[in-house]
Every structure is written in structure tokens, then in C-alpha cells.
Amino acid sequence: MSDSSPARPTAPVLDVWCELQCPDCRTALDDLRALRARYGDRLELRLRHFPLEKHKHAFAAAQAAEEALEQGQGWAYVEAVLSRVEELDRRGEPFLVEVAGELGLDAGEFDTALIDGRHILIVDADQAEGKAIGVTGTPTYVIGGERLDGGKSQEGLRERIEEIADRLLADGV
Predict the structure, then answer these.
(1) 3-state secondary structure of 165
(2) What are the backbone angles phi and psi of residue 46, rounded to the nearest 5°?
(3) Could you identify which of 44, 72, 110, 128 might form a hypothetical disulfide with 100, taking C-beta atoms 3.0 to 4.6 angstroms apart as the criterion?
(4) Quick one: 75 exposed, middle or buried, by C-beta within 10 A (0-12, 13-18, 19+)?
(5) How would residue 44 be classed by pLDDT, with cut points 50, 70 and 90?
């Protein structure tokens, strides 16, 4: 069967390479909220995991974020965990399960997901892709084929992302 209706253009994608135990990623939340407010569904924000070895709970937190995404509250969970990075540092996996319960998610399923490792391959794939494209720290953004590193400084990054997003939207990408 043929569909002659014009194809709906897809939204430009902003890959956000993030780590949920990273204070710099917490700081970047304000920029991400501003981008969501400005663009809505015209810009797809996509969480990509890049757990850093120096943070012992980052890998589990990435898996938990995937479970939250599966349960329909990925970004809400990411924001809730990032807003309490110090607590994640102190409490680890029990904290991740507790946050799920606070958001009304199935905390038991979170606990099971962290035990059975059902999301490990997603986290591993993100981390491998990040390394392959030169991600070395978080947050790092990729939009329109351009990598923007926020791990050292986030100054001017939102403006640069907006410039690229505006250009992509004007070009119909």
C-alpha cells in the first residue's frame, strides 16, 4: 500500500551525554529545562549514558534511569536523582530505588532491574558510542553532528545549542 501524504519532518536531536552522579550535569539541568521550554517537541532531547569511573554509583544510576524511561518517567527521574547528587554519593542503590517510589514508579521493579541487569547493554552501548565520538566527560552534547563539551565549562553552551537547533529547524531537519 502506498501512502502519498508528505513525510512529517523529524525533530532535530540533542544527545545529552550525562552521568547521574555528576554535579556538572546537575548544573546543566537549568539549560535543559530552558531548551525544553523553548522548543517543546520540536527538539528531541535524548539521554545518553556516560558513567564515569570516579563515581561508584553512576553505572547503577544509568540503569535505573533506563528503568524509569521504561516506566514512562525518564526525565523526571533523571532530574530527581541529579537534584540530590550528594545523597546518591552517600546511599547508592537504595537511594535510586527510593527515588523511584517517590515518583510513584514501581520501586520493586527498579530493585529487580538493578539486580538482573536488564538495562546493562543500553548503558554499555551508550558509553562505547560516547568514547567512539570523543566524549571524555559530562555533560557533553551532540547536535547536528557537532560535539559540545560542558565538562570543563558550560558557559555559552545553551546559546550554541540554540543556534544549531534554530538552523536545523529552519533547514527542515
Answers:
(1) helix
(2) -120, 120
(3) 110
(4) middle
(5) very high
* Total length of the chain: 173
What is the pLDDT of the chain when averaged over all its residues?
92
Do 120 and 66 contact (CB within 8 A), yes or no?
A: no
* Homologous superfamily of the 13-155 domain (CATH): Glutaredoxin (3.40.30.10)
**Grid cell locating 158:** 545553551
Cis peptide before 139 (omega within 30 of 0): yes
| Domain range list for the chain | 13-155
Give me the half-sphere count of Cα atoms (radius 13 Å) on the Cβ side of residue 168: 21
Q: Say if residues 20 and 78 touch (Cβ distance below 8 Å).
A: yes
Q: Is the pLDDT of residue 3 over 50?
A: no
Q: DSSP per residue over 27-95, as a string?
A: HHHHHHHHHHHHHGGGSEEEEEE---TT-TTHHHHHHHHHHHHHTT-HHHHHHHHHTTHHHHHHH-HHH
| Spatial distance between the Cα atoms of 9 and 173, rounded to a whole number of angstroms | 7
Q: What is the mean pLDDT of residues 74-92?
A: 95
Question: pLDDT value at position 155?
Answer: 87
DSSP state of 153: -
